[in-house]
Amino acid sequence: MWTAYKKFWKNYATFSGRASRSDFWLVVLMHVILGLIWLAGLAAAGFSLLWDIVRQDSTSDWNVAAVVFVIAWLALLVLYLLATIIPALSLEYRRFADTGLRPWWFIVLLPLSYVLDGMSNSQPDNGLLLALSAFLGLVIFIINLMPTDKFRKG
């Protein structure tokens, strides 16, 4: 897993070559693990704040420390998310290339998926947008599950 994660950062902006299924999914697993660690830290600080509220002790040193921790923890999350945008896009591009799909699949599917997702979140009553967004997400998920050269002709 560490090797795949190191390659993820080493190929920070490499939009050429290939990324195997294992390279892709091990990075996804690492992001899930890091997300769970982040969530556990946030939950611990949140429970600390909640406990202080229940006890009605708003001047507790623990309360102040928990607020500072939550702010710092959220700042770290934002920095990490910003730092991983380009490597995540390059990994996704290389994964598409590994399946044998042409670059235009990536250029069309990913931005369209993000746009539909954003539109469906801003208009939650629009079932068609939600269905299209979910369908496109499923298509991208299935592409990422495909073996090497699945779509390559010849």
What can you see in these coordinates?
With 154 residues, this protein is an all-alpha fold. It contains five helices and no strands. The protein has helices at 2-10, 21-54, 61-98, 103-122, 127-145. The radius of gyration is 20 Å and the shape is globular. The model has no long low-confidence stretch (mean pLDDT 88).
State the end-to-end distance: 33 Å
Shape: globular
State the helicity in percent bands: over 70%
Task: Output the number of helix runs.
Answer: 5
> What's the number of extended β-strand segments?
0
Please give the radius of gyration in angstroms: 20 Å
Element order, helices and strands? HHHHH
Poorly predicted runs:
none
Class from helix and strand fractions = mainly alpha
Query: Averaging pLDDT over every residue, what do you get?
Result: 88
Q: Please outline the major beta sheet.
A: none
Strand proportion:
under 5%
Write a concise keyword list for the protein shown above.
single chain; 5 helices; 154 residues; mainly alpha
Give a short summary of the structure.
Helix content is 78%, strand content 0%.
Summarize the helices and strands and which ones pair or pack.
Blueprint: H1 2-10, H2 21-54, H3 61-98, H4 103-122, H5 127-145
Helix pairs in contact: 1-2, 2-3, 4-5
